[in-house]
Amino acid sequence: QVMPIAGTVAYFYLRLDGTPGGATSYTLTVRKKGTDTTLTCVISGSAIACSDTTNSVSFSAGDLISVKSVPSATNPTARAMRWTAKFAPN
């Protein structure tokens, strides 16, 4: 997605429609222009949600924002995800 205006993204929350299962996990990372940022969280085992309320990332108008999902080495159950974050314009 293209960021329409400049600002800072923080308070990243993510939720799955079910657990990853067992000892498996997903690592979720907010990306800026195709590059990983410090906004990241991990959902594992019986959890269905995670958050990063510590880090933030600045975006310029026109930057691309996306969320990357990386499954653990032992594949977790496939799940749909929903995410949200706080956006504060500059």
What would a concise description of this structure say?
The chain has 90 residues and is mainly beta.
SS-based class? mainly beta
Measured by DSSP, the beta-strand proportion falls in: over 45%
Give Rg in angstroms. 14 Å
Order of strands side by side in the largest beta sheet?
4-1-6
Count all strands and give the number. 6
Low-confidence spans: none
- Through-space gap between termini: 19 Å
Q: What composes the largest sheet?
A: 3 strands, antiparallel
String of helices and strands: EEEEEE
Helix content: under 10%
* Average pLDDT for all residues: 95
Shape descriptor reads elongated
* Separate helix tally: 0
What is this structure's SSE topology?
Elements: E1 7-16, E2 25-32, E3 35-44, E4 49-59, E5 65-71, E6 81-89
Antiparallel strand pairs: 1-4, 1-6, 2-3, 2-5
